[in-house]
Amino acid sequence: MSWRKLKIRLKLALLFGGTVFAFLISTGIISSSLFFQNVRSEFDRLFIEKFNYLERHLEWNPNQGIYFRGNRDVGNVDVWKDDLSSKIYSHGPMEIPTTDLNKREFQITSSSRSGERFRILQKRISKFGQIFVLRSLVSEQRVWVRFWQFIQYQTIMYSIILVVVFLFSYFLAQRLLSPLNEIIRKVKVIEGSNLGKRLSILNPQDEIGELTIVLNRMLDRIEEAFLTLKRFTSDAAHELRTPLTIIKSKAELFLTNKDVRPQANETIESILEEAQHLERLINSLLFLARADSGRIELEFEKIDIFYLCQECVEVLEVLALEKNQELAIECDKSIFLNGDRTLLRQSLFGLIHNAIKFAPHNSKILVQVKRQHGQIEISVLDQGNVIPESERTKIFQRFYRADKARTRETGGQGLGLAIVEWIVRAHEGKASYVPKGDKGNEFCLQLPVTT
Amino acid sequence: MRLLIVEDEKKISDSLVEALGRSGHHSEVIDNGSDVEQALNRSLYDLIILDWMLPGKSGVEVLQDMRRRKQNYPVIMLTAKDEIEDRVLGLDSGADDYLVKPFAMVELLARVRRFERNLTAQSEQYFYQLETLRIKVLERKVFLDENEVELTQKEFDILHYLFQHQGQIVSRHMLSKDVWKIQDRATPLDNVIDVHMTKLRKKIKGKGAEEFIETIRGIGFKLRTE
User: Fold this and answer.
1) Which of A233, A269, A318 to mutate to test the interface with B (most CBs of B within 10 A)?
2) Which of A297, A295, A298, A299 is nearest to A232 (CA)?
3) How far apart are the first and last CA of chain A?
């Protein structure tokens, strides 16, 4: 999982924990090195003391040369000639490595062999009338053992501290961020008709308080924009319809005036017809604008679907007859649906009307109602030309028109199916188009049976 | 009839005055809501045509004030709004009728005539005749030159409606509202009405005589007078 995707509380805890970890590491390094120096200087002090004892207890006789005679354990000892050309005496089980051997007056160094650490002290001594180099080697293992112990204790302690700090900061972050979760929960609730609600501010000074204030301000603006849109559709309705009323009434008065030249009539008549077009377009646009701003409230009632179909078919039958089309209903009686009667009739009416308009003469149009999977499917099937595949996804979009050249003459505006789609969606249903072979279309309204 | 028109858009009120004047009505115009009370105190009216959006006082407020003062003038409300909530509010405030802009002038005249009929208490007619065309309303029978003409139910209803409005233009919207009983304007019946009208015309065509039903393009239809 990447860092960006982590939740803020985890990030905060990790950041804080990381900082504490870095701090602990650095203090750990400092304190352990101080500890080590301390322990070793103590060790060296004892070592020097021992060395002094060794020095005091060196003897000499002409036969043996220099030798140690004392009862304390002074570790491994050796004595070198002043020019370091040869070793003249050695004592103890181990041979002292010669890597650091030199002519210095005094030197204390470290060495290790097969995992064990040693301390070597070397001193130039003038005694028994000659100058020689005395060396002693002792194990400093116990210094390191104590040092590693110290590191161990420290690591355990620091780990505990780190875990505690991490958990603490995680829960602290969670606690501090909990108002955010509250905000998320509340903002989810504020929608559409709930826009008047605001978030409560706990502490206006802190960041979350500021966020809440900013969010509230944004909600103010959204609500205002929403209300403006609402006012706009109402104003637009007024602004568009008033001049249209004037055009229509003036034209009507002109036409019904008896002493008008007949040549002028035709002009006025086409003005009136265009005004009619415009009126219908405005009505459709305002319907969609109101629908978009959530201001069309559905009036639910129990609808007899068979009766609804029959009603539409009875009205439209006459148009089908004109084109010698057969218009039939296939629907069981007593299928009921809860819905807005006016809006559903408008959709079904529109679909059947379209089918009659676009299907060829002497064809068959079927209004079919099925109950399936707890849904009611109202389909209008015709034998007209199939809508090309590239256009299918667009048919329920606004201002879509299948045949651009024909629309003026058939009076479409490309809003009918968009309105049908909205109405069905408002009923929590789905409007769809299915082509039937080469020749045949099915427009289907799937509506849930709500109780 | 004496009418009071309350409408702030002068071009609309001018048209209304002219159209109503041609039908023999006398009307006065007020262009704001606040002066209505004064006008009503000054003179008597048979009908008030009231616009919804008015400067001063809105149409609904004017109406509510009038009803509070127990002034029971019949009121036709005009509005550019058509939302359901508005309709309810308008009718609740005591409007007797309702017209949504842009309305057809012929429709307004038809509504005005309905109030006029109420005034003169004209009874429903059961028999109409125009030259050789006769209809008997109760029996739903139509005769042309003494021969009975077979009409479908809708065709008869249309013809009856035209006789009721004889000499006046009837708009398609009026037909869909009154004959088909479809209120909402989102369901356009224009094509349906035209087809029925064509069939009806064919059936009642007199021999060589003038057409009984005239088409006024862009407005509607008219059953001519003798």
Assistant:
1) A318
2) A295
3) 46
CB A242 within 8 A of CB B9: yes
CA atoms of A98 and A107, how far apart (whole Å):
13
**ipTM confidence score:** 0.83
Residues in contact with B212: Cβ distance below 8 Å, sequence separation at least 6, in sequence order: B130, B131, B133, B201, B204, B206, B223, B224
How close does chain B come to A338, measured CA to CA in Å? Answer: 20
Rounded to an integer, what distance in angstroms lies between the CA atom of residue A59 and that of residue B118? 153
A410–chain B nearest CA distance, Å: 10
**A251 CA to chain B: closest CA distance, Å?**
9
Q: What are phi and psi of B98, to 5 degrees?
A: -145, 130
- Chain A residue numbers touching B106 (CB-CB < 8 A): 252, 256
* Alpha-helical segments (H) within B148-214: 153-164, 172-178, 190-203
Instruction: Using an 8 Å CB-CB cutoff, list chain A residues near B191.
Output: 319, 353
Distances (CA, A) of A8 to A167, A172, B74: 14, 12, 69
B127 Rama sector, left if φ>0, alpha if ψ -120 to 50, beta otherwise? beta
Nearest CA in chain B to A341: B184
Q: Hey, CA dihedral for A205, A207, A209, A211, is it positive or negative?
A: positive
Q: Which of residues 137-176 of B touch A (CB under 8 A)?
A: 154, 169
Contacts of A447 (CB under 8 A, 6+ apart): A337, A339, A344, A375, A376, A377, A378, A424, A427, A428, A429
Rounded mean pLDDT for each run of 10 residues along chain A, 451 residues in total: 82 90 93 94 92 88 84 85 85 83 86 86 87 89 92 93 92 86 82 73 83 89 82 76 90 80 82 88 83 80 92 92 93 88 92 91 94 89 88 82 54 79 92 88 89 51
Q: Do A237 and B82 touch (CB under 8 A)?
A: yes
- B187 → chain A, closest CA residue: A346
Which member of B19, B81, B195 has the closest CB to residue A318?
Answer: B195
Q: Which amino acid is at A398?
A: R
Task: Give how far B41 is from chain A: nearest CA, Å.
Answer: 30
